[in-house]
Amino acid sequence: MSYRIGIDLGGTKTEAIVMNEAGEILSRERRPTPVADGYDAILNNIADLVFTLEQPIGSKAHVGIGHPGAVSVRTGLLKNSNTVCMNGMPVKADLERLLDRPVRMANDANCFALSEAIDGAGRDANVVFGVIMGTGVGGGIVFHQKLHQGLQHIAGEWGHNILEPDGPLCFCGKHGCIENFLSGPGLLHAYRKAGGNQGDDTKTIVAKAANGDALAEETMQLFLDRFGHAMSIVVNILDPDIIVLGGGMSNLERLYTEGRDALARWVFNDELLTRVVRNVHGDSAGVRGAAWLWPARGEND
Ligand SMILES: [Zn+2]
Questions:
Q1: Which domains does the chain have, with CATH numbers?
Q2: What is the distance in A from the centroid of ligand 1 to the CA of 260?
Q3: How buried is residue 53: exposed, middle or buried, by Cβ count under 10 Å (0-12/13-18/19+)?
């Protein structure tokens, strides 16, 4: 029996699980990420979690880590992480030294996609596009249950495709990225720009729209149409069997009906066979996907 430890390194918490070959979670531990204490403390925290979790197993586990940002293929240094003290650091090499074993790392949206592709909503699909719509927008591509990270590890990063060039300025330096429209803050921005109440949060906007508020409904219609537009770019290129949604905005029921209808209107085809579904693993998808960076059935083991 070989065990995997998956780590989901977040900006506020670090979560770790031990998973067996059947994908069952045997134990789980969550700790705050010691961001204020800096880079070394964050890495030592991960190492301590691994050693603690593998004590009852009695053997060394494979370790996979899901994280924000990307490890540069050219330099091996982490970039684009919102935990800024990690950026520019050789995270993978340092962890491999601390843990005395090879470590696999992938972006958190990629881990989400992998988890849903292997034993989640996309388990019977050959090509899965996993989408995170939360405070940011990201995505991951899985072919035949194998993560496709791409030459530069940016495969699936549709959140920074430009949807409307005259849109809001994105943190990436461009204007009108998909993330600026389909994230939670994006919905809020559109609502306020249209004259909506500054104090309303996303839940309030959704509820107001359901109760017939014209401005909230108009904002939701625009949001759903932009979802269809943005998603059609992915479908026209990748044509996945299934699109699995995750992140806070994925709780919006209308995405699976009206959002999908909008996609059908935007896509370059006279019909839409693509399934657009909710994720199965919820908040555990990231940490499960990190564990699945070490695939089952002996591949690369
Ligand atoms: Zn951007």
A1: 4-107 (3.30.420.40), 121-279 (3.30.420.40)
A2: 24
A3: buried
